[in-house]
Write a structure and sequence with these properties.
By secondary structure, this protein is α+β, with helices and mostly antiparallel strands. It has two domains: 151 residues, Jelly Rolls; 73 residues, Orthogonal Bundle (Arc Repressor Mutant, subunit A), CATH 1.10.10.10. It is built from seven helices and ten strands. It is globular.
Amino acid sequence: MAVALGEHVGDGFGPHDDTRASPLFEVRAEVLQTLLDRGQRHAYSADTTVFGPDERPGKLFYLHQGLVRQHIVSARGVEKAIGLLRPGSFFGEALLLNECASQTSAVVVSDSVIYSFTRATMDELFRDHPELMLEVARSLSFKVQLLTSQIWIMASEESETKVGKVLYLLSRDRRERRPALYLTHQELADLAGVHRVTASTVLTGLTKEGVIECHRGRVLVKRRDRLLRYRLE
């Protein structure tokens, strides 16, 4: 359940406010303590790297508290944000299942508590709690959707369009009439691949149009229908 493009149910951006309406969330609530009891607990301070490129942790990670950012750094040193993970998010699925080297970095944004699970432990948990397999598959499916969305955004030429597409994607599947997106101007800029000042300028314009309302660390979408101009045709 990653936030990213932005907020995955459980949302990846961190869990949505309506996560409790999901049957899968109720399943997870019943087995969460069992999951945590079997994992290794780690306390990370801000700016700590959980894993970096080319590392092979061979573990699955579960973010219990805090905020984690995943990104890729090009050969020229250009950083591209992939998504923000909030509590309730699994990450490192491919590293566990394929035992492959990481192509991304996972960096702690704020003090976090993260649990890690070895392949042997997850095999036992999957056997005892098959619903967890669905959770991990759901997390992977979301990330495939996320990466597809990132490609769609990167294909845009105008900065305003990139920011608008991020807002559209984050609010598209929300159940509330006026969904609140919990992210800062910098987080939005990272997701859109633009400068923070550019993201702030676009948000100011959309605020004047009455489409959104900006608060500290939160963007309230007042007119979701006005974001439809950014959808994929």
